[in-house]
Amino acid sequence: MKAMILGFIAIAVIAVSGDLIMDQMGWSAEEQGSSSSNVRLD
Amino acid sequence: MRDARNPLCFLFVAVLALTTLLTAGFSSPTFAQEAAETEIDRSATGGATTLEDIMRRQQGLQTNDNASRASNVGDPSAAAGLSEQLGTLGGASDPDLWRGMRFNAADVTTQVRGPASEVLIQDRGMWWLQFREGPLLTYGGYLLLGTLGFLLLFFLVRGRVRIDGEKTGRRIERFKNFERFGHWLLAGSFILLGITGLVSLMGRKFLIPAFGHDAFAWIAGYSKWVHNNVSWAFMIALVMIFVMWVVHNLPDKTDIKWLAKGGGLFGGGHPPAKKFNAGQKLIFWSVIVLGASISVSGLSLLFPFELPLFAKTFAVLNSTGLPEMLGFGVLPETMTPHEEMQYAQLWHAIVSFVLMAIILAHIYIGSVGMEGAYDAMGSGMVEEQWAKEHHSLWVEEVQKRERDAPGNATPAE
Q: How far is the CA of B135 from the CAs of B117, B310, B339, B342, in angstroms?
């Protein structure tokens, strides 16, 4: 039971961390495809 | 061995269902659009689109006027002089321009970054949309419901697989904490991914009518976040499971005996098995192979247009001659970026459906389907009699290890 709960907690930790890391790498789900990150102003 | 036959049986049903899904889906009129074309007399228009074409298209029917439409995208060399009428259009009328955009022949320049930003209209996406909302959704749903129905029927007919012999009261450690952690990391993430994946695929059809657009927008938004980010836990767990258990899942001669006896399906007692029997090995390799395939196609979807997979894969497959042999013809080897994503989405969903069906059977046999099975992943300790019935060779190994342990050595006289 302890291993199961730890596994589920790990899923939540990895998911939140994954989201933060993706944001840092410029793959934010919110920004992806938005005009502010995609429009070239040259 | 009565319990162990079940995973094998379920796997067979799943493979059969996959074959049906693929056969029905890929041979459907939606997929093979060419087959459904109707001959229309275009002599009056010189081969160009007729009123009948337009009417058929408005009714959602197929037409085969794409050849003339794709070629009529304007000719800049025939442009009228700047001082003449229509001169500023450069030889292409508005319809010419739209056709050019639709058939990816227009000279598009854009300030939007991204590999697919110059594709303004993706004309070849309709077959994907129709396949996604038609056969994929329908047969995928049937596969899951059919598996659940089969399991229910099996339970009603067969009942719970009980421990045959008398329980000893002694317990053996089957899985260590770390192994069970890896299992639940994989299991929990897969269940979340399965549910949120189904919401993404089927929500429009089933959840909007039930809860309305506003509620579905909220559900779909969070589902997407969960699906995208929980995928990392699934991939990490998949690697963990592979590393931990691959040694125990390599095929050996006990599997042949186990399979020859049908896992005990036709009587003859419990066939001997090591830590994992042949049925469990099939589950393991299904999870590894299908899970890896889902992960790769998922990464392709997670990083849109960055990891195109299918044109290259199809080229390799075509070189083997296998697709033609199976009646699929020559698979497309050049694709627009959007087409790559469409194939990735379909493959991701099809393989996921198959793995979900297999895992439903796995969940059944590991919980309500068999007495004593859940303990292996619950507490990690299993009843000795259960272990002797289902994994007799493994029990012998464990007992020998215990006897040979330094603390248990018989002192020399």
A: 30, 20, 18, 15
Cross-chain residue pair B230–A11, CB shorter than 8 Å: yes
pLDDT value at residue B90:
65
Q: What pTM value is reported for the model?
A: 0.79
Q: Which residues of B56-93 are buried (b: 16+ CB within 10 A; e: fewer)?
A: beeeeebbbbbebbeebbbeeeebeeeeeeeeeebebe
- In sequence order, what are the residues at sequence separation of 6 or more whose Cβ sits closer than 8 angstroms to the Cβ of residue B352? B193, B194, B197, B294
Q: Which of A6, A11, A37 to mutate to test the interface with B (most CBs of B within 10 A)?
A: A11
d(CA B369, CA B155): 7
pLDDT digits (tens, 9 = 90+) for B256-285: 988 888 776 556 678 899 999 999 999 999
- From A8's Cα to the closest Cα of chain B, the distance in A is 6
B-chain residues within 8 Å CB-CB of A41?
111
Residues of A in Cβ contact (< 8 Å) with B112: 35, 38-40
- Taken in order of first residue, the domains within chain B and their CATH numbers are 91-121 (no CATH), 125-175+249-401 (1.20.950)
Sketch the domain layout of chain A as residue ranges.
1-33
Q: Cβ neighbours of residue B28 under 8 Å, at least 6 residues apart?
A: B131, B134, B135
Nearest C-alpha neighbor of B173 from the set B2, B387, B412: B387
Q: Contact A12/B190 with Cβ under 8 angstroms?
A: no
**ipTM of this predicted complex?**
0.81
Residue numbers in A near B111 (CB within 8 A): 39-41
Q: Is pLDDT at B77 greater than 60 in this prediction?
A: yes
In chain B, positions 59-98, which contact chain A (CB-CB < 8 Å)? none
Rounded mean pLDDT, B315-328: 93
Instruction: Identify the band that residue B35 occupies on the pLDDT scale cut at 50, 70 and 90.
Output: very low
Spatial CB neighbours of B45, under 8 Å, sequence gap ≥ 6? none
